[in-house]
């Protein structure tokens, strides 16, 4: 499938054991919405279950395709939980006739040519320059002793969506040159299937 024939509206997800980051694309260059859903347990447990939030996102935005990444392989428990979440997303999407694709985890890094070591923060920084509306959300690069900022889940979802569309067109709204070159190496989809209620919204407001 060539980029010109790919569906216009997609929902890109970063699925984690206790949260889901998302970005809604209208074509490769326009973002409609973004945020992070938490599914924590304990005293501060979120009362709305994952399935309900997913269904709301799908109904609100009606994407043609949902894209996500394979869960990491380093922690078996978290991998199994994430895989179950992906299966739930697939079922919700299938009921609505929405296609799903799951990337290999290296797909986002393969977008960037000429870089021997692309860290998550480097990728997020490059994408924040391309999508200026998300630049205020970019967290500072974390130290090895710090936990990852929850906002990075938005940028991981953004990278997944960018990998689906392939090379980005040069930005026309900013005179600054792009610091990284995008390649055409992002391939390797797997079929899957998936939409909304968020804690962190497009205009920087927190949901109750």
* Text of the CATH class: Alpha Beta
Rg from Cα: 16 Å
CATH architectural group: 2-Layer Sandwich
The structural class is alpha/beta
Number of domains: 1
**Largest pleated sheet:** 6 strands, mixed
Mean pLDDT, all residues: 75
Question: Which topology does CATH recognise?
Answer: Nucleotidyltransferase, domain 5
Contiguous helical run count: 5
Assembly state (oligomeric): single chain
Strand order of the biggest β-sheet: 3-2-1-4-5-8
Uncertain runs are: 172-208
Q: Give the overall silhouette.
A: globular
Strand content: 15-25%
DSSP summary, beta strand count: 8
What is the CA-CA span between the terminal residues? 41 Å
Folded structure, characterized:
The chain is an alpha/beta fold. It has one domain: Ribonuclease H-like superfamily/Ribonuclease H (Nucleotidyltransferase, domain 5, 2-Layer Sandwich), CATH 3.30.420.10. Helix content is 29%, strand content 21%. A six-stranded mixed beta sheet has the order 3-2-1-4-5-8, sandwiched between helices. The chain has a two-stranded antiparallel ribbon with strand order 6-7. Strand 2 (19-26) and strand 3 form a beta hairpin. Helix 4 packs across helix 5 (152-165). The termini are far apart.
């Amino acid at each position: 499938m060539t980029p010109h024939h790919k569906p216009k509206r997609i929902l890109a997800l970063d699925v984690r054991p206790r949260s889901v980051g998302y970005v809604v694309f209208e074509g490769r260059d326009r973002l409609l919405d973004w945020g992070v859903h938490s599914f924590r347990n304990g005293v501060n447990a979120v009362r709305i279950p994952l399935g309900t939030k997913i269904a709301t996102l799908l109904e609100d935005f009606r994407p043609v395709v949902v894209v996500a990444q394979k869960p990491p392989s380093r922690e078996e428990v978290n991998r199994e939980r994430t895989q179950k979440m992906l299966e739930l997303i697939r079922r919700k999407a299938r009921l609505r006739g929405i296609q799903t694709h799951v990337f290999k985890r290296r797909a986002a890094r393969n977008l960037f040519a000429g870089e021997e070591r692309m860290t998550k923060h480097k990728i997020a920084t490059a994408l924040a320059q391309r999508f200026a509306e998300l630049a205020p959300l970019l967290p500072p690069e974390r130290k090895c002793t710090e936990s990852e900022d929850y906002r990075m889940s938005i940028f991981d979802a953004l990278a997944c969506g960018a990998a689906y569309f392939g090379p980005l067109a040069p930005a026309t709204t900013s005179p600054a040159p792009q610091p990284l070159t995008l390649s055409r190496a992002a391939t390797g989809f797997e079929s899957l299937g998936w939409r909304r209620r968020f804690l962190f919204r497009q205009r920087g407001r927190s949901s109750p």
